[in-house]
Amino acid sequence: MKKDIMICGVGGQGTVLASRIIAASAMDEGNAAHSAETIGMAQRGGPVTSHVRIGDGAFSPLIPLGGADLLIAFEPSEAVRNLRYLKKDGFVIVNSVPVKPTSLGSSEGYDGKAEIEFLKSKCSCLVVDSDELCAPFGSSKFFNVAVLGAAAGTGRLGLSADTVRREIIKTVPERFLEKNLAAFEAGMKIGE
Hints:
alpha/beta
């Protein structure tokens, strides 16, 4: 398998954990995996991107422009900012709930709707409302694992849902495990 996946969002949303679960799941299935994070301001609110390259043809951990098969965006403006990495036939999974990144500066009235419409006009995408999806779990902090379920449900992740589940069990602290597994399953239903 060869798959290039970019994950983007805002510091504090759990993008790095999501990328580590993907990379570890790929290795569990016998694939080579390289990953790298670009953490903008290294604080909550700064832009964060993670590159995950799966397969023997990935010699660098960074995905070239126009090379990503899948873009998983935790925030609408970050999806737009990183869209240049998506292949022409790539797919985007994007959270519709905005979290104003520091990269937007002092823009007022940002609600992410224009960014979602732009994405819909430019590529194939699945729009997910993190607040709605995560409401049963009491926090949108579970979105990072729920969106992995959505990606697995679409079939675009390229990894077995069982493998990802096992990696979640190995990675997530036990006190949060039950809700994370439920969030993964809820995401799978949306992706399917």
